[in-house]
Amino acid sequence: MPQDRFQGHDYFLMDELLTEEHRLVRDSVREWVKRDVSPIIEEYAQKAEFPKQIIKGLAGIGAFGPYIPAEYGGGGMDQISYGLIMQEIERGDSGVRSTASVQSSLVMYPIYSYGSEEQRRKYLPKLATGEMMGCFGLTEPNHGSNPSGMLTTIRDAGDHVVLNGSKMWISNAPFAQIAVVWAKDEEGSIRGLVVERGMEGFSTPETHNKWSLRASATGELVFDNVKVPKSNIFPNVKGLKGPLGCLNSARYGIAWGAIGAAMDCYDTALRYSQERIQFGKPIGAFQLQQKKLAEMITEITKAQLLTWRLGVLKNENRATPAQISMAKRNNVNMAIQIAREARQMLGGMGITGEYPIMRHMMNLESVITYEGTHDIHLLITGMDVTGFNAFN
Ligand code: TGC
Ligand code: FAD
User: Fold this and answer.
1) Residues 319-364: tens digit of each pLDDT
2) Position 314 in a domain
């Protein structure tokens, strides 16, 4: 990929709504992405490999547990800083943001929110430094959008439980040392537990041949009579609200992240339109290309305002799950539309790895599917505004 010349886009002077700390966090992550992600990410995406060497750097910029209190190794930051970190990382690549959001919101968050003090002290500091990586197992081969039907079970066996079943499409699974797993107990209640690599009967086969999120490792979690100590079960949550609570935090981060991917596509297309000459003029001088760019910056600006407001509500503990759904759905859809338009603006060059757009476009096909599909989030909004549940 040519040198990363990205410049932020702030049409409505949104920076004035950020604190000095927010801007500092955002700018330092942006610099790190330019230095350590952009130069290598295309090569890793092409070979479908997660660049493990960036784990230390991700920990260094505070991407693992930004809002987890400092006494457990987290960054102790607010929700807007967390969002800005996700935005800047996804500006580089959605797969790298996936690794960070799984670690923060789907592994550290449940351990912090639902775990015992012993569990917090055992896992959180190592997860914050990246010495330990985690993954999150909710989806199963036959239960994706409706996780309440899950078939993975735990059976009481004295001082431990016996875990059986399987999970599919799990980000970070191939290399994670621990998995936060959701399974039903004998009463049919969903419980969360920490499963450690090395436990007998636990394996994590890698999923190959993805056209999307190629720089992120995806795999299965297979449990064949795995004995898990009872001390690994989260004591403070029961039911589907446990995993869904984690998703609120991850979906919030994705809403910010999608803005990053969209800004990168817009920035690339804008620069290309100013430099590429056809019919004796820069293509940006043609009205059809201007329409595309004008609509892109309009949609990015609307998403920035929505998401900043959501961050304020989240800081005040007032953001509802339905508001988070609306932002995730809107922003990922906005980003995927922009990626498709921007790719066309680059003509043939748009399909090459010389530019980041095609990679973003393909990545966003996963982002619009995971953490609740586009349609599932629409139904959540529909239920919230009408009071009618269209799921059952
Ligand atoms: P429902 O009966 O509505 O609710 C069951 C219980 O959960 C509570 N609840 C929530 N709690 C917290 N946050 C939320 N967002 C919540 N939504 C619901 C609810 O109040 C109830 O509590 P209680 O106390 O009454 O028991 O559940 P349902 O079975 O009808 O399902 C609702 C539905 C469809 C919205 C939900 O299942 C859903 O969101 N499905 C989508 C599944 C999904 O998003 N999976 C994501 C897997 S993880 C992933 O994709 C990671 S990708 C990572 C990466 O690489 O970045
Ligand atoms: P399905 O639920 O089978 O849906 C198929 C289609 O039917 C979709 O279009 C959906 O919108 C539609 N549909 C379903 N129900 C309804 C309905 N009631 N009304 C209307 N339409 C409906 N999961 C994890 O647990 N952990 C992870 O780390 C993780 N990482 C992932 C990484 C990648 C790259 C991908 C692709 C997925 C990942 N997932 C992960 C799984 C992801 O959350 C699921 O793919 C997603 O929730 C959708 O489930 P599904 O694929 O089984 O699709």
Assistant:
1) 999 999 999 999 999 999 999 999 999 999 999 999 999 999 999 9
2) yes
Question: And the tokens for 389?
Answer: 């549940």
Q: Are residues 85 and 145 part of one domain? A: no
Average pLDDT over every residue of 138-142:
98
In a domain, 5, yes or no: no
* Separation of CA 184 and ligand 1 centre (Å): 15
Domain total of the chain: 3
Cβ neighbours around 198 below 10 Å, total:
7
- Residue 9: inside a domain: no
Q: How many angstroms separate the alpha carbon of residue 305 from the centre of ligand 1?
A: 26
Average pLDDT over residues 314-318: 98
CB 261 within 8 A of CB 363: yes
Residue whose Cα lies nearest atom 12 of ligand 1: it is 245
Residue 8: inside a domain: no
Range of the domain at 37: 14-129
pLDDT of residue 3: 84
Residue that finishes a domain, picked among 232, 261, 296: 232
Same domain, 263 and 376: yes
Question: Is residue 220 annotated as part of the catalytic site, yes or no?
Answer: no
Among 172, 199, 232, the domain-final residue is: 232
Pocket of ligand 2 (CB under 6 A): 102, 135-139, 144-145, 169-171, 213, 218, 366, 369-371, 373, 375-376, 379, 391
Residue nearest to atom 20 of ligand 1 (CA): 241
Does residue 302 carry a pLDDT above 90? Answer: yes
Ligand 1 neighbours (beta carbon < 6 A): 98, 101-102, 136, 138-139, 145-148, 171, 239-241, 244-245, 247-248, 250, 321, 370-372, 376, 380, 391
One domain, residues 122 and 48: yes
The DSSP line for 124-187 is: HHHHHHTSS-EEEE--BTTBSS-GGG---EEEEETTEEEEEEEEEEEETTTT-SEEEEEEE-TT
The model scores a pTM over 0.90:
yes
Q: Tell me the per-residue pLDDT of 184-217, one tens digit each, with 9 for 90 and over.
A: 999 999 999 999 999 999 999 999 999 999 999 9
Which residues, listed in sequence order, are joined to residue 227 by a DSSP beta bridge? 162
